[in-house]
TrEMBL record:
Family, per entry: Belongs to the glycosyl hydrolase 10 (cellulase F) family.
Primary enzyme class: hydrolase
Domain GH10: 1-331
Entry-linked PROSITE patterns: GH10_2
Organism expressing this protein natively: Paenibacillus pabuli
Keywords: Carbohydrate metabolism, Glycosidase, Hydrolase, Polysaccharide degradation, Xylan degradation
Pfam families recorded: Glyco_hydro_10 (PF00331)
Entry protein name: Beta-xylanase
Pathway: Glycan degradation; xylan degradation
Lineage: Bacteria, Bacillati, Bacillota, Bacilli, Bacillales
Length: 335
């Protein structure tokens, strides 16, 4: 049997996977064998745990927390503030109008205290704020993404979220998490945000690079430049949602029922280069989490086209190691 990834990389970083209650069942032995860290794919998001003001729903999140406790795996919390999967009630007052800033911040505080407090014993790191940086490539003054958070509370909902999370669990490592993190424009915006939080004395301990990549993009140079730049913040870095799609980002074809040999070869090379790069920066990188575990389930099966199968991981649909696994495993072994 193949060597566990978590063992091969134990001197470098944690090896994580995003899970949900279904994959905890269907991928149970694969998860326990190769991974030593987990993230809830959707189950700890605002809408999942707090759909109504007076009602918290922790059943699914608890399933994931219990699995992590049972197996002694590290658990990352995802996520406290986001523009998606956030319920409307949060931004509304009793008459259906927009809530006041102070009320929104009180609600945020109550939410964070309840959710972070509940999993204090098992969650060691939280993605406190997710994806607040603008993707706008045309406007060079663009900075924060437009959102209800920003509209109602102004920029400092970000700092407040970190402060509330720190109060709720002073031991947790607090992350800012984003995608397109290797894009040069976005990279500098993310850097600027985190730098300003640090300058204000906000409790923030890490930057999460989602790393939703594909066979061609981003370039290794851009990945390296991003890691170097974020490392200058003096914070720890984690890859939080790694996957390598076999399609180009503009490709919308839906006819493939299995990946071509060429795709699998390119993917293996790509993963090898990525892990070589990560290994070079292992002093800065504390965890590498895949956004799933094996090709039988990935969010990319429904993105950007609904029902289009993808094969982004190191393990195939039957949980067998792919060529990409072999390459990643081989380079982990010190010469
Ligand atoms: O729960 C419903 C279910 O009742 C319904 O039958 C089904 C059919 O449409 O939809 C289910 O909801 C879906 C949900 O995932 C749970 O599977 C939503 O439609 C779907 O939009 C949602 O997608 C999630 C997405 O975040 C939402 O933005 C993905 O699973 C999840 O992988 C993805 O994760 C995000 C990270 O949190 C942040 N970074 C990007 C990453 C990928 O988009």
């Amino acid at each position: 049997e193949e060597a566990p990834l978590k063992e091969l990389y134990k001197d470098a970083f944690h090896i994580g996977a995003a899970v949900n209650p279904k994959t905890i069942e269907s991928q149970r032995s694969l998860l326990a064998y190769h991974f030593n860290s987990l993230t809830a794919e959707n189950e700890m998001k605002f809408s999942s745990v707090h759909p109504q003001q007076e009602r918290y729903t922790f059943e699914d999140a608890d399933v994931i927390a219990s699995f992590a406790r049972e197996k002694g795996m590290a658990l990352r919390g995802h996520t406290l503030v986001w523009h998606n999967q956030t319920p409307d009630w949060l931004f509304e007052n009793e008459t259906g109008g927009q809530v006041e800033r102070s009320v929104l911040l009180e609600r945020l505080k109550a939410h964070i205290q309840t959710v972070v407090g509940r999993y204090k014993d098992v969650i060691y790191a939280w993605d406190v704020v997710n994806e607040v940086i603008s993707d706008d490539a045309d406007d060079e003054n663009a900075f924060l993404r437009p959102s209800k958070w920003l509209d109602i509370a102004g920029e400092d909902f970000i700092a407040k979220a970190f402060e509330f999370a720190h109060e709720a669990d002073p031991q947790a490592l607090l992350f800012y998490n984003d995608y397109n993190e290797s894009d040069p424009h976005k990279r500098e915006r993310i850097y600027r945000l985190v730098r300003s939080l640090l300058d204000q004395g906000v409790p923030i301990h890490g930057v999460g690079l989602q790393a939703h990549w594909n066979l061609y993009d981003p370039s290794l140079d851009d990945m390296r430049a991003a890691i170097e730049r974020y490392a200058q913040l003096g914070l720890q870095l984690q890859l939080t949602e790694l996957d390598v799609s076999v399609f180009r980002s503009e490709d919308r074809r839906t006819d493939l029922v299995q990946p071509s040999q060429e795709m699998l070869e390119l993917q293996a090379e790509r993963y090898e280069s990525i892990f070589r790069l990560l290994h070079e920066y292992k002093e800065h990188i504390s965890a590498v989490t895949f956004w799933g575990a094996a090709d039988d389930y990935t969010w990319l099966d429904n993105f950007p086209v609904r029902g289009r199968k993808n094969w982004p991981f190191l393990f195939d649909e039957l949980h067998r190691p792919k060529e990409a696994y072999q390459r990643v495993a081989r380079i982990a072994v010190p010469k």
